[in-house]
Amino acid sequence: xxxxxxxxxxxxxxxxxxxxxxxxxxxxxxxxxxxxxxxxxxxxxxxxxxxxxxxxxxxxxxxxxxxxxxxxxxxxxxxxxxxxxxxxxxxxxxxxxxxxxxxxxxxxxxxxxxxxxxxxxxxxxxxxxxxxxxxxxxxxxxxxxxxxxxxxxxxxxxxxxxxxxxxxxxxxxxxxxxxxxxxxxxxxxxxxxxxxxxxxxxxxxxxxxxxxxxxxxxxxxxxxxxxxxxxxxxxxxxxxxxxxxxxxxxxxxxxxxxxxxxxxxxxxxxxxxxxxxxxxxxxxxxxxxxxxxxxxxxxxxxxxxxxxxxxxx
Length: 313
What we know:
Layout: H1 7-14, E1 22-26, H2 32-41, E2 48-52, E3 58-59, E4 65-66, E5 78-80, E6 99-108, H3 116-128, E7 136-139, E8 143-146, E9 151-162, E10 194-203, H4 228-249, H5 252-260, E11 268-271, E12 276-282, E13 288-292, E14 295-299, E15 306-308
Parallel strand pairs: 1-2
Antiparallel strand pairs: 1-5, 2-6, 3-4, 6-10, 7-8, 8-9, 9-10, 11-12, 11-15, 12-13, 13-14
């Protein structure tokens, strides 16, 4: 039932942006990111949007587990291509599924990789909360929170080795090499594209807080009837457009959008290396700026975790 995942509408919106993109929907998988990285390492670097109704071994940043909770759909894989409407088959998502998990994989060669996760976060936040009324915030480097510090979504960005010469790529690379914003790059120059995998997990409905590092938030708090399919339809095409913009212009067009939703700026924060200080927002390359007793520090690696202090801490 293609309409259940809005596949005709989704494919029509994505085809002009990523003409070779294939959409795949599976009932269950270990991890959408892991699967696309497996394919890339085996030589399959075709653009794909892989959606899982349930993940059994999902991963977040620093290897933390992320398990999506879907519904009781069958185990058959569904696939769609913007150029092959007849391939759109399947029973569709459970409307009561409480999470959306997907990965977008494609050959990518931006002018500068710095701050990619911040741009992705800004894109998703603006799609989920266009007018800011829901209070969706961005927590450096790759989480979406609500204004009360509950976690709504997470982003995991990975890259595989340079793809084969002649592969269709997005944008043109001439400089790279920093790791700010959660993406490690290969060196001072990067003439060859890499296979980019962007994994996104979003809480659509309410979930238990037990075992979670941060209390959860969910989309149905301000969109009571939203389904995982609705959320995917709303965020995937703008994300593709924003990736095209990032490929050409880097973080610059997204810096103000991130700053408007920055969950840490102006707050006292603790870093996992024992450092603490006051967050002063992000720098031009996506680095987090924290003023400590030793002065202004620029955090350029996502190996550190950052937590804001709450009132009373």
